[in-house]
Amino acid sequence: MSEMLSEQIKQKAQKIKLLVLDVDGVLTDGTLVYSQDGELVKHFNVKDGVGIKLLQTFDVAVAIISAKDSLPLKRRIQDLSIKHAYTGCKDKLLALKELTTHLGLQFDQVAYCGDDVIDLKVMQKVGLSLAPADAYSMVREYAHVVTRAAGGKGVAREVADLILASRMDLKQAYIKAMLPEFEDKPV
């Protein structure tokens, strides 16, 4: 992966101390499934969980900023030990400003992955903006990096690998994921 990074993207990724993820269209494929009794069902990719946990192991904070709020999302946030989550958020840029102030970070230390026009204000402010392969076309135009993966198909894992590969050999990073204690928490 590291040999695939342009020098400019590698330099941006090396500065990242916070990865912020949108949910629907990034961590999920964007499909909203309602059961017969109206309960929302979301499908998350386990590979993304490994990438998110691995970033946290290497002191890169991970946050969620999502316009939607749901019980499945809250459960996923809990399972991944994500400490910073703004769900049901109508102003993603304001949420990001609050979060960076709280963490003492500058925007160039933030990576953001989004898939639709609601994400553009944030993507234009951060140090590294990313979009899934199937993001809305305008969003892909504004992204520094467009992942090979489509939403819900390992986007966060690909982003985590990019950030980690900018700093170290990925094989070395994944040694931590092979340790028994890595599996102590759900992915």
Report on this model:
The chain has helices at residues 7-14, 46-57, 71-79, 92-103, 120-123, 137-142, 155-165, 170-177, and strands at residues 18-21, 33-34, 40-41, 61-65, 84-86, 110-113, 128-131, 145-146. It is α/β, with parallel strands linked by helices and 187 residues long. Strands 5-4-1-6-7-8 form a 6-stranded parallel sheet, with helices on both faces. Helix 6 links the parallel strand 7 (128-131) and strand 8 (145-146). Helix 2 (46-57) packs parallel to helix 7. The mean pLDDT is 93.
Q: Looking at the structure, what is the overall shape?
A: globular
Helical coverage, percent range: 25-40%
Strand count: 8
Assembly type of the shown chains? single chain
Structural class: alpha/beta
> Strand-residue fraction?
5-15%
Low-pLDDT residue intervals, each spanning 5 or more residues: none
Let me know the largest β-sheet.
Answer: 6 strands, parallel
Question: What is the strand arrangement across the widest sheet?
Answer: 5-4-1-6-7-8
The radius of gyration computed from the alpha-carbon positions, rounded to a whole number of angstroms, is 15 Å
Mean pLDDT metric:
93
Number of helices: 8
Task: State the separation between the terminal residues, measured CA to CA.
Answer: 23 Å
Order of SSEs: HEEEHEHEHEHEHEHH
